[in-house]
Structure formats: C-alpha cells, structure tokens
Design a protein that fits this description.
This protein is an alpha/beta fold. Helix content is 44%, strand content 16%. The chain is built from 16 helices and 13 strands. The model is unreliable at 127-131 (pLDDT under 50). The structure holds adenosine-5'-diphosphate and magnesium ion.
Amino acid sequence: MPAKILVVDDDPNVQRLLQYTLKQEGYDVVVAADGAEGFRLWGAEAPNLILLDVMLPTLDGYQVATKIRAEEAPNTHVPIIMLTAEREVEQKVRGLRAGADDYLIKPFHPAELLARIKSLLARFAPRETLLARPPLGRILAFYPAKGGVGSTTIAINAAIALHRELGRKVCLVDGNLQFGDHRVFLDLGLDRKSIVDVVSAPAIDPDLIKSVLVKHDSGIDLLLAPPSPETAELVRPEHLPQIAEMLRAMYDYVLIDVDKRLDDVNLGVFEAAEIVFVVMTADLSCLKNVRLILETMHHLGYPAAKVQLVLNRSNAFTGISVKNAEGALRRTIDHQVVNEYRGAISALNSGAPFMFTKADSALGGSLLQFARTVDKPAATVAALVPAR
Ligand SMILES: Nc1ncnc2c1ncn2[C@@H]1O[C@H](COP(=O)(O)OP(=O)(O)O)[C@@H](O)[C@H]1O
Ligand SMILES: [Mg+2]
C-alpha cells in the first residue's frame, strides 16, 4: 500500500505543487487548507506523514503539531515536516519543540523534500492505519420522495461534511443502480470501477470491495453505480445489504443514495439502514408520496425513529409552509436544508460539491447542521469513551 501524506497548507499553489510532486512519486495525498482541518484529517485519515505549513488559518502549524502529539496514542508517532517561510533559527527551534521531526524552508527543491520524506518514513515504522477505536458502522439511506428533490445533493454533501468537518471515516454508495449520478456530481469518468465489479466476482469479500472503491479528493470513499442501465441488472436485491454490512465494519458512516422506487433493491437497503432519510420538498405531489411512504414503512414494522423527513429547499416559496406540511403529514419534519439554487447547480455543473469547495455558503452551513444533528448520538457516545 502506498504511504499516505497529509499536506496542510492554505496556499492553493503550494497544495497543487505538493500534490503533483507527491503523486508522481506514488504517494497517496490528502490536503487540508487550514490547521483545524489538518488536525481533523490526521484523526480521520491516519496519514503516514504530515507536511505542515507554519502560517495557517484557524490553528497555526505549531498548534497543530502540539495537539497531535498530545492526542497520539501511546507508541505511535506520525512524522511531521514543518514547512516554513521564515529563516530565523528561533522558528526552527520552536517547530521542533512543538513536535515536528524535521523542517524545510520555502521555497525548497522537490528532490530535497522527497529525500526528507523517504528518510522520515524509513525512520518511523508505519503507523497502523486503523484507528484505535472501532468504526461507528452506521448505515444511512437517502430516499427521494420524488425525482429531483435533491436527495443525491444531500447524500453527497452530508458525506463530505461528516468526513471533513466531523472527522468521520465515510463511504458513499451510489445505490441508484440504473441512473446513478455520482460520476456527474463528482466529475468521475465511466472508466472507474463500480459495484458491478463487486457483484460479478465469484465471491464478495472486504478486500474485493476495497479494491473497487474510488477515493474522492475530499477524502471520502465511493462505491459507484453501474456504468450503464443494462449492467444494473447484475446487482441483485441481496447484494447491497451484503456489501453495506461489510462496509460498516470499515467505516463510521456508510451513506446509500437510492432512487425513488419502492422495489426489492431499495427495500433491502432500508432494511439494512439504521435511518432512512426521506428527502422531500413542500409541494402537493411530494406530500402525497411522503404519506404513502410513511404508511409503507409503518406496515413494514419500522420503528418511527428509523424514518426521518428532510425538507429540502425549505425556504423556497411553494405556497405550502413547513407548518402546513407538518399538519398534512401529522408529524414533524426532522431536518431542513435551505434553498440556494445557484450554489447547488454550479456545484453540480462543475463536478465539485459545495461542501468541498464552498463549505461556508448558506447551503454548506445548512448541510453541516444536518450532518451535526445526524452525528450527535455518535459524538455523545464517543465523548464518554476515550477515542484513542
Ligand atoms: N437545497 C437546494 N437548493 C437549490 N437547489 C437544489 C438544492 N438541492 C438540490 N438542488 C438542485 O435540485 C436538482 C436535483 O437534485 P438531485 O440531488 O439530483 O435530486 P434527486 O437525487 O432527489 O433526484 C439539482 O439541479 C440540484 O442542483
Ligand atoms: Mg438522485
């Protein structure tokens, strides 16, 4: 397995340059643009080495190094190289005292950087890539009450928020087998492996699944939908639950984005899920569908808390208020996501999810709030049990 390097630098040019240089050498690269994010990604990604800029927003490089050293599990040590623009000797001393193993003064030659990385990786035995705590293993399904309500948008951006903002290990599954959209939303080609490569193997096991997952730049892992509607038939109803069960042993969250059919494939996903998020907008046909869906879930014997309603574009004018919708459904709406058509559509068109590139937008904030609420029970439990 290639060594994974976490780059923490706020300068997009440096990010690009380092990413290019390191990938050329065969390393896996994860990028954080500020100190707090770097610290979170250290927890979520368990990198083999960190390149840490000194001048950073939120937490500076010294603070990040100090925090990491304070929280590292006994007998583990992630090598850290500080990247500094300052030539003063005091700075160097401060960096090394904060817990860095080496430092480089910018600008540096790529060959010099690579040599330092190699020697540090050799000096420190590779850290076990598993986190000290077992994965949370929560399976979440996202189900649109009708087409186009924003279920895929919410699943993808919630996955990224859970990983980047809350430090969880996340796998996102495109369960819309015939017309999966994740390749479009995430700008990935048809040549990438998909669930078809899993189900057409003689036996399904975790290693096979791992080899088919696609790593997104945001740090989440993806299991893509079949590349064409014909090949979707190869996925049988028992496959998704079986795969989800194996994934939950490896991830904190497995998010499955499904299409609007109530067929055996989707029922299998609902069965496997801890929570089914029914995504809706405030219009009459959606309300009618949500009523039917809630009735069906009730007949299937699912506990009330298993099905949660997500009202998307909640502040868009539809003539039906949240109160009216709740009255018609005779239950409360559990989550709301704001309307921001431009933000959503430009993210879709550029293949860069807003939670990745514009997390501080109104839409990003709304999705983060959703992710926090979903993660809350897990976060409370984690606070009681020391994580590492
Ligand atoms: N909160 C939102 N505000 C504005 N537009 C949105 C929002 N969520 C989704 N959209 C837009 O709605 C359209 C359908 O979204 P999509 O996620 O593909 O829906 P679904 O998966 O339910 O079919 C897309 O053009 C998307 O950009
Ligand atoms: Mg969809």
